[in-house]
Protein: Zinc finger protein 678-like
Amino acid sequence: MATRAESHLKQEKVESGGGKQDSPRTHKCGECGKEFRYLSELKRHLLTHTGEKAYRCEECNKVFSLLGSLKRHNRTHTGEKSYRCEECGRCFLELGDLKRHVRTHTGEQPYRCSKQFSELGSLKEHVRTHAGETPYRCEECDWSFCTLSGLKTHMRTHTGEKHYRCEECSRQFSQLGNLKRHMRTHTGEKPYKCEECSRQFSRMGNLKTHMRTHTGDKP
Structure:
């Protein structure tokens, strides 16, 4: 019994008057009307309608509709990394991963707000800060965040995890920013400077409090 894909291909040949297997002419999908230059492209496309998956992984039995998809999947078992960076020699499993990596060498930032990003995902996360979207919700207290990393950082307030350790005094912190602020108590660094009187502070909050002595603002 002919499969749906085979039936479509027979009908396509009747309508086109036969033709060579992969001649550069228009081949039309009977399901959606989309046209392809080569018959092989139409065959691949038809699988998206029929759901047929002819290619099976011998390692885990997962099935795929395209041979190329199976080959990419097989690399997750073999560890093969076919895509190599010509700058530093690092190898990658997927071409997309290599392309993203190459931007770390070229400095290319194709995704931009007014701020620029080398990763589309980073741009999408950044745009949420403008839109006010907070899709990542804490199941403990219902606080929500615009980035997954923000949620992970917040979760440490519930778990008590403190990944960041001061090498001077061994005090531990749940956030890198808190460790950096703490380190200034050892280094004496004061990066926040008052433009009115040039007094310097180790914390932005202290500078803001100080500025009220010039502006007369009350907290």
Notes: DSSP finds eight helices and 14 strands in the chain.
